Amino acid sequence: MLKNHIKNKLNVMSGSRSNEQIKVISASLENELSKGSVSFMITSPQPSSDTAVISAKVAAAMAHQDKKVLLVDGNVRMPLLHETFEVSNSTGLVDTLIWTDPEKMVKNEKETNIQGLFLLPAGANIEYPGEVFKISKVNKLISYWKEIYDVIIFAAPAAIPYSEPYVLAAGCDGVIIVVQKNSTKTEELHKAKESLERSNNRILGVIYQTK
């Protein structure tokens, strides 16, 4: 079952290569946090459930450093994180984006079983995500969340076929790209990286997922 497949990968302290990279990236973000709250997006060149796995691991690692973390499931096409953390997906990011004033919106963030880590699920199913994914709305939300959380992490859909990652990344301080062993092609990685950089997105690192 996909939910169990993801949950079985969430042990940040295990010895896989990706976990070591996550700890290195989490440590490097400490310098960014000294300047204030940070927001970043995690994506992959092609669709993969590993992006949700890595996003959850990074969020957990930051929470374990006594940071208040908001993990946002930005993959409204294939939401997984509500199952991973066993919370309701009845409301979430899509519903939040519909509101024009963040201070008046219904709070859809859910507490998780990890202290300091909150999850905003994907929320309502929507046929055309582009109808609600607007840069101005996302930027307004990020500014609002930075007053509440130390770290905001967007788990995004794949960067090559979809437009939502570029909307989410526009308001973030950086991007992390997840690469799957024996799956991600070199040209796909280069294409995703170049496309994000052309949109003035800062690449914080690449995580190599081997399992």
Automatic annotation (TrEMBL):
The keyword Zinc does not apply. Its EC number is 2.7.10.2. Gene3D superfamilies: P-loop containing nucleotide triphosphate hydrolases (3.40.50.300). InterPro entries: Bact_polysacc_biosynth/exp (IPR050445), P-loop_NTPase (IPR027417), Wzc-like_C (IPR005702). Keywords: ATP-binding, Kinase, Nucleotide-binding, Transferase. One of its GO terms (molecular function) is non-membrane spanning protein tyrosine kinase activity. The keyword Transmembrane helix does not apply. This is CpsD/CapB family tyrosine-protein kinase. It comes from Thalassorhabdus alkalitolerans. The lineage of its organism: Bacteria, Bacillati, Bacillota, Bacilli, Bacillales.
